[in-house]
Structure formats: C-alpha cells, structure tokens
Amino acid sequence: KMVSSLSISLMIGSSILNDKSKALGSILAQATKTRELEQLYQAQGDELQQIKIRTNSTQKQVEVLKREGEVRQVAFSASLMASGGGDIGPFNAYTSLIFRNVVSNIGNAYNPNTGFFTAPVRGVYHFNYHIYGHGHSSHGSGAVLVKNGEYIFMAYEHQTTLGANSANTVTMLLELGDVVYLLQRVNTRIFDDQLHYTTFSGLLLFPL
C-alpha cells in the first residue's frame, strides 16, 4: 500500500510539474511575442520618423522651387503716357523716359515712377522699344537704351513731314541688380497719346 501511495504521489507530482512547465512555456512564448511586437512598434516608429523627415525635406524643396519659379517669371510692357497726349522735348541733354502706362509687370521688376527696370535675377533678358514722333524740320525722334549708365542701342529717325518711327531690340546678359532704362536723345521730340505709339517692353528669357 505504501508503494502504491508513493506511485500515485509521484504521478500527481509529475502531472503538476508538466502543467507548470507548460504554463511557463506559454508565459515565455507570450513574453517573446511581446518583445517582437515591441521591436516591430519601434521599427514602425523609426520608419514613421524617417517619413516625416523626408516629407519635411520635400516640402522645403517644393517651397524653394516655387520661389525660384516666381523669380523666373519676369516680363513687362508699358507705353509712355498714362493719360492725355502730346510731344515730349526737345531737350538740350539726354533725358530719362518714364513709361507710366503699364500694361503688364509680372515680377514687378519695372518701376513706372522712375522708368527703371531692375534685374531680379542673373539671366538673359530681351528688350524692345518703339519711338514715335511727328515730322519736323529741325527735330528728329529717338532714344537710347541704357544699362547701368552705358549706352547700348540707339533708335533714331528724322522726317521733315508726316511721322518719324524708330525702334530697336536687344538680347543681353544682366546680373542681379543691373538697371535698364531709356533716355530721350538730345534735340528730339517724342509723341504719345492714348493710342500708345511709344512703348518699352522686356522679359527674362532664362536665368543663369
């Protein structure tokens, strides 16, 4: 009987041990899964942080490109008189022409108060201008395009009767801050009215 009781006790102990072993194994398995989940969450968090960093970088690049795109859009066109009409000149010295009737001024590089175009970016620009005057025995009609005080191209015509039309055009490299404007030639008369005969235009072809 004692042997039988001992056998039963051993069997019960073995069963309990097996149950505890299984429970411990289950706990260890759950702990392993928990660690794996924590590692997965950590990896996902790191990836999310990297995505945020890349997104911020992309947004900054887009903003830079947008600003550059705005600078690259430069063009203006204006005529001499905003109202009324009549002759300007003659003068005994070269005199600034201020084109006050602005048709377009994309980029605001042209100043209708001074007549100056100031390059907002280094690049290649194209300018053209048309000068009109009535025929006169003593006075022609003309103007010179100037860059930073340097005479570039002249447009001049002298007719004793009818109208005197002249024009010129130039494509040139400008540095940031360079100034382009027109000067009325000495001893000339220039006419404009609401039909806008006398005009000045320019645009940025491409930046450099």
TrEMBL record:
Superkingdom of source: Eukaryota
Compartments in which it is found: Secreted
C1q domain: residues covered: 69-208
Name of protein: C1q domain-containing protein
Database matches in InterPro entries: C1q_dom, Cerebellin_Synaptic_Org, Tumour_necrosis_fac-like_dom
Pfam families (UniProt xref): C1q
Keywords in alphabetical order: Secreted, Signal
GO CC entries: extracellular region
Lineage: Eukaryota, Metazoa, Chordata, Craniata, Vertebrata
